Amino acid sequence: MLYRESGQFKTTYAADQQLFPIRQDRYAIGLLLAVAFVVIPLFASSYWLTALLIPFLVFALATLGLNILTGYAGQLSLGTAAFMAVGAVAAYNFQLRIPGMPILVSFILGGLTAALIGIAFGLPSLRIKGFYLAVATLAAQFFIPWLLVKVSWFSNNSASGVITAQPIEILGFAFDSPPRKYLLVLTIVALMALAAKNMVRSSIGRAWMAVRDMDVAAEVIGIRIMRTKLIAFAVSSFYCGVAGALYAFAYLGSVEPDGFNLDLSFRILFMVIIGGAGSILGSFLGAAFITLLPIFLDVLLTEGAAALNLNLPSGMTSMAQLVVFGALIIFFLIVEPHGLARLWQILKEKLRLWPFPH
Amino acid sequence: MQFFFEVLIGGLLAGVMYSLVALGFVLIYKASGVFNFAQGGMVFFAALTFVGLQEKTGMPFWVLIAATLAVMVVLGIVIERVVLRPLVNQPQITLFMATIGLAFFIEGLAQIIWGTEVRRLDLGLQDEPIGALMDQFGILVSKFDLIAALVAGILVAVLAVFFNKTRIGRALRAVADDHQAALAVGIPLKQIWAIVWSVAGFVALVAGLLWGARNGVQFALTFVALKALPVLILGGFESILGAIVGGLIIGAAEKLAEVYLGPHLGGGIEGWFAYMLALLFLLVRPEGLFGEKHIDRV
Asked: ipTM greater than 0.90, yes or no?
């Protein structure tokens, strides 16, 4: 009744090709953005902003990056965290070594550096695929953090490679409080999500999907595989690099390269799988789910143990997390391989017919 | 020169351990085309179950082995039933991601049951240099490593006989070759998969015991198991021989690199050297030393 596109006629090509062709979708997105930009900074507590919303947005950006590579171009990567580390450290160094460098330019350059490294580690993808590629990206995952710790120049000679991000200041305006940092991250993430949404329906996005679905066939119809795959690696690493820079600058403040470990890479891969591979919306849903789940489990276990007067051994919650993550991954792959995004789509289709399904 | 040989032998013996883990990967890959990322988790699970049972019950060694083996077989059958059967005919990459989830599940489950602390695993083998070799050539070779190599050798021989001479082994090879054809001649695919996962569980048990006795039973075991991946890249995914040779090469190259290259690069290169070696190798010969070459057609 409410969600129905009848009566919405498209009279121009522009109207036909717009990003959200259904009017209700446009209103919903507008409302969501208004809440995110205006209501949340005004009313959310700083715990909510720093512990939940900023990490959610940063992870959503990284998930977007991996989703472009894995979900759209079909190249599995287990090195996401390493590319985030490159972005973070590169942005830090541009900021440190070039006086008067605008911070946004540092973020972009950090992303571009990550893109270059991504291309380098994407080169083997031209000859191999599937889990062979996973091993190749594992090389990046183990090599890059090691390099960043060993070469102390990267961290300005700090012990164990810890970098302390510089304060964020744009045109004399300091982004120092949680709501301001949140707004900055939100703006960047929203713009990059918009770019991604447009990219995946452009010719390059279609080329990615063709390569994903069957690379030999894609080559036969004239898609240049090498160029397509490398662009996927570059764009994906760019997103991850910017996410890494935001992770360091807006979320944690100081990070060590060892923090960008295999665990983080897996976590982002899980966000892609659970959210929905090959979906921009899914990246956000997956990131929200995986960010919230540990907190939810933690509360559930502590409350549950307190209610039952049980004495849980230490480390129980993190173990329970492993089990739940693992079980969820298997569950989603079996029951709904397209993740939460697909569930949302089904819901929308049901809504179109509601309340008269026949 | 003496030092070089000592490092080389040490590396080769460490490589035997990698081979043991890699063997489990190859078995499952050959029979079901699934790249089982959870093999490391199974190694960890087996070792932890063994130690846990030892602490709780104090059963004699062989009973413990049998009990743990039973647990691993049950685990293998449950995995086949719950995870693999619903995912039949899915793309390989989906199966691979499912085994990543499986790895998390098994690792978490093992620690929920048996606790998270680092355990010592005592097999009654001394980790001391062999006197005769020490006196004659001045080369340090640990008795433990040598026995581990021996066990690995026996295991490979047993598996080779099992694969080539028995009825089930022939069925396994048929399934590996072509699922459809194997089904058509009446080989029960589901049973075969359950058997393969059980055998992989057995290999995981052997690897877990040896690794655990060497480094203690702890979560880090799962990372060591990841080293089996470059071993497979080098040796080829379909070849048991490849797993052995690849393991030896990786083990030796890693130790030599750590000793001779390490000081120039600031040390700690063992963490990534195997992966970079595999990465370079992929560029030259993607199918591995003994793997089958695949040709794609539209």
From this structure: no
